[in-house]
Amino acid sequence: MKKLLIKILPKIIGAQINIMSLWSKKAAARKAFHIFCTPRAGRVKEDQTAFLNTAKDMQLRVNDTVNVQTYRWEGTGPTVLLIHGWESNAHRWWRLIEVLQKLNYNIISFDAPAHGNSTGNILNVPLYTESLEMVTQHYQPSIHIGHSVGGLTTIFHYYKHQPKHIKKIVSLGAPSELSEIMKDYQRILSMNTTVMKGLDLLVQKRFGFSIDDFSGYQFAKSIDVPGLIIHDVYDSITPVEASRGIHKNWKNSTYIETSGLGHSLYQDEVRNHIIKYIKKDS
Q: Where does the record place the AB hydrolase-1 domain (predicted)?
């Protein structure tokens, strides 16, 4: 019964939004956008609390709307900033943090809005990007490492802000095309074209770009620092074609394609690739 409910609930929500679009395309689009931007998980779990509490640092105010919780594991080496993915939090990096600590890196991470110990109820890439900019300006890292939506946010952040102190970027399992993500969203909820047109207008008005314009492929063309891109061919969350396209347009990037590691990319193999890359020429 539970599995059946999980399967049909998105269709019920989509049907409600479709009905709403009959009398107000704008209202239907706002509802669809709010659902799209609302994470169902990612808050700190009980078994994650102790690890994060030892490193809690500042809370930074972003856009006068959310307080972003930062974490710091101090070291005398280069500063590395870790950017987690959707429905996750800074704890996802704990194994990498242990390795980086042994190498004496100065490690910074933070919880995205509506995740971990940060405030807020929604998250989207533009909001995540402004949060990343606030954290980046405060801690001045030389290396960004992002996973999934955090990887795409890192790429968009560089495109938008061109930070001079960033020397290397690592992207793990990042998506690329908002248009492809929205097609999946439309399919899952069975939303009609009226709703999708309304969503596109809402995105244009709120962020200044259309759904089709938001492209990791295109943003990657602006990156002039070295980058490491890792993606698993069997990633069931984000298609491997996303990172292949980003790599094609990122002139100074190294691409590693794994097999059987999935979307999380937590494994020793991935950590070894990351450490080898960020230590090179440093």
A: 78-183
In angstroms, the Cα distances linking 12 to 36, 189, 267 are 15, 8, 38
Asked if 229 and 256 touch (Cβ cutoff 8 Å), the reply is yes
The reply to whether CATH 3.40.50.1820 applies to domain 49-177+215-279 is: yes
| Cα distances (Å, whole numbers) of residue 86 to 10, 11, 37, 39, 146 | 19, 22, 10, 7, 11
pLDDT digits (tens, 9 = 90+) for 133-163: 999 999 999 999 999 999 999 999 999 999 9
3-state helix, strand, coil in the chain (%, to 5): 50, 15, 35
Phi, psi dihedral angles at 44 (to 5 degrees): -65, 130
- Residue 60, pLDDT > 80, answer yes
The whole-number pLDDT of residue 5 equals 45
Question: Which position has the token pair 């759904």?
Answer: 211
Whether the pLDDT of residue 4 is over 50: the answer is no
Closest CA to 264 of 217, 240, 231, 227: 231
Task: State the chain's mean pLDDT as an integer.
Answer: 95
Average pLDDT over residues 57-77: 96
Does this model's pTM top 0.85? My answer is: yes
Q: What are the residue ranges spanned by the domains of the chain?
A: 1-36+182-208, 49-177+215-279
Give ∠ CA 145-146-147 in degrees, rounded to 5: 135
Report yes or no: 153 and 125 within 8 Å, Cβ to Cβ.
yes
Beginning with the edge strand found earlier in the chain, give each strand of the sheet holding 168-172 in spatial order. Answer: 56-62, 66-73, 106-110, 79-83, 143-147, 168-172, 227-232, 253-258
